Amino acid sequence: MTPSPPDPRLERLLRELAPQALGAVVRRYRDFAACEDAVQEALIAAAVQWPRDGVPGNPRGWLIQVALRRMTDHVRSETARRGREAAVAAETPAAVAPAPPPALDAEPAIDPDDTLVLLFMCCHPALSPAAAIALTLRAVGGLTTAAIAKAFLVPEPTMAQRISRAKQSIKRSGAPFRLPDAGERASRLSAVLHVLYLVFSEGYAASSGFALQRTDLSNEAIRLARAVHDVLPGDGEVAGLLALMLLTDARRAARTGPGGELIPLDEQDRTLWDAEAIAEGVALASAALRQGPAGEYQLQAAIAAVHDEAARAEDTDWPQILALYGVLKGMSDNPMVALNHAIAAAMVHGPHAGLELLAPLDGDERLRGHHRLDAVRAHLLERAGSGAAAVALYRAAAEKTTSLPERNYLLLRAARLSEAP
Amino acid sequence: MKYMLMLNTPRDGYTRYMSWPKEVLEANTAFMIAFSKKLSAAGELVAAEGLASPQQAKLVRAGKDGKPITDGVFPESKEFLAGYWIVDVESPERAYEIAAEASTAPGVGDGPLWVEVRQIMSGRQDIR
After folding, report:
1. Which CATH superfamily groups domain B2-119?
2. pLDDT over 70 (residue A97)
3. What is the spatial distance between Cα A286 and Cα A284, in angstroms, rounded to a whole number?
């Protein structure tokens, strides 16, 4: 049964309470997979009952009680099943001990770390990225399986299986419900941030055609990154990721045209950018940079901030962007960074400087068959006045990309250039 | 990433299929059902469909008034699409693995059919 129409305020409340309730229930019963199901059932019950009967005085307590009751039933039936099995094995009458009812004593206090512990669990290295994303959205984001399935354009039973397999993997890995040890804390946190980053970029799909129906994954990623930042305000990379998301998302209204076509940064109507999100992102990025050595998300955020602070494309501080990409290039051997570094160099020193930096990337295995190298080279050749060569490379890139909006963009670019007088 | 796995049959494939022996038909149906269930349980199935015989297929285009004009079937086609799977997987290699397994569906003929594997375009774009 689904409530209709869903009240956005109620939905927000439920999704905020979801990880708090789950934390409290897992703390008592340990069995993460079963507890997660119990909380999900409690959320569904609330979505049906609250609009009808009114929101209870203590909504969080209500969810915890309902979920604990489900868990009692679950444990009782498990005990009974095991009892029957034991009885059959021993050929003696079943001695079925009912599970003790949960002690409904004082309500457990909110532990601010619960959201973080849950995120570490859902982004456990034993899971594939797709599995981690799905489980994170359900267990921490409080989204229903149906909503997640819709966001990823797969049938609900397929998504349900993906989530249930993810939970089995966690069970097998034996991960305890607590923060990882100091030794692995940093690498586990970076796995969490990577999953949130993937959720964000999944949501950043151009809003054309079928994509219109999708649950807003970018907002969800921002909400979760904000929650992590609230718990770890001193972590520069967490702040950096949140800033990067805000600064990128701020351009949402300007990055596609009326036909869903991509509009590149230098052609966007910057008055459509979200000034509030930019201000918040810039403040976060600057504060994080002051705290110490910058990580990759912080540098990406700093670059996004430089773009967002330019009122016109021609006001962009490219020397600063070039310097930031230089630092980033020294930290990571990601070829995408090298591509962006070449673009920045072209903006500062002219297209030939950029083309020179692209040359060594030709041999990079990781870029083989990737459209990005052709696309960047096409841009630089266009700027250098080599129209025909640029057209050929735009078309080569269009043939390689698997993104529909990017293919359309590249083909339009090639057509425009080849038809230019 | 999503892939479409297309199972093509030669022109006379459907005609021959109509006269497959009972045990091969049963084995084929059982395979297809079990295969779909397996993909769904793996969290990878998006869709799986079999297509009706090309005997019933029509070629259609708009006439001058915009109304459909239909024609008989593909006189020169050498192959027909018999069915397809759409899967959502972690890598191209996994899509190939699924396609290879699909190609082993029981049938009558010279061994596994070729399965054409095509990536489905996404709405994503690089943000960095």
Report:
1. Dimeric alpha+beta barrel (3.30.70.1060)
2. no
3. 6
Q: Which residues of A touch B88 (CB under 8 A)?
A: 130, 152, 154, 158
pLDDT in tens, B84-126: 999 999 999 999 999 999 999 998 887 888 899 999 998 776 6
Mapped onto helix, strand or coil, the DSSP state of residue B32 is helix
Residue B121: its chain A contacts at CB < 8 A?
Answer: 402-404, 407
The radius of gyration computed from the CA coordinates of chain A, to the nearest angstrom, equals 25
- Largest Cα–Cα distance in chain A? 93
What are B91's two structure tokens? 């890598």
> Would you kindly state where each structural domain of chain A is located, as residue ranges?
8-90, 113-173+185-232, 233-311
- Predicted local confidence at residue A415, as pLDDT: 95
What's the pLDDT tens digit per position in A56-78? 999 999 999 999 999 999 888 88
* C-beta neighbour count of B52 within 10 angstroms: 9
Joined together, the tokens standing for residue B96 give 């190939």
Helix (H) and strand (E) counts in chain A: 18, 0
Give the tokens for residue A126: 């034993």
Residues of B in contact with A372 (CB under 8 A): 126
The ipTM assigned to this model is 0.83
Tokens coding A363: 């041999």
- Residues whose CB is less than 8 angstroms from the CB of residue A228 and which lie 6 or more positions away in sequence, other chains included: A115, A116, A119, A192, A193, A196, A238, A242
- A265 to chain B: closest CA residue: B127
- Residue pLDDT, tens place only, B50-64: 998 888 888 899 999
Nearest chain B CA: its distance from A30 CA (Å): 25
- Whether the pLDDT of residue A1 is over 90: the answer is no
Helix (H/G/I), strand (E/B), else coil: A340: helix
The position carrying tokens 């569906």 is B105
Q: For residue A406, give both structure tokens.
A: 């990017």
3-state secondary structure of B83: strand
CB contact under 8 A, B122 and A404: yes
Per-residue pLDDT for A212 more than 50?
no
Confidence of residue A100 (pLDDT cuts 50, 70, 90): very low
CB contact under 8 A, B119 and A406: no
Q: Distances from the Cα of A371 to the Cαs of A188, A198, A377, A397, A399, in angstroms?
A: 31, 20, 10, 4, 8
Model-level pTM? 0.87
* Per-domain boundaries in chain B: 2-119
Confidence of residue A357 (pLDDT cuts 50, 70, 90): very high
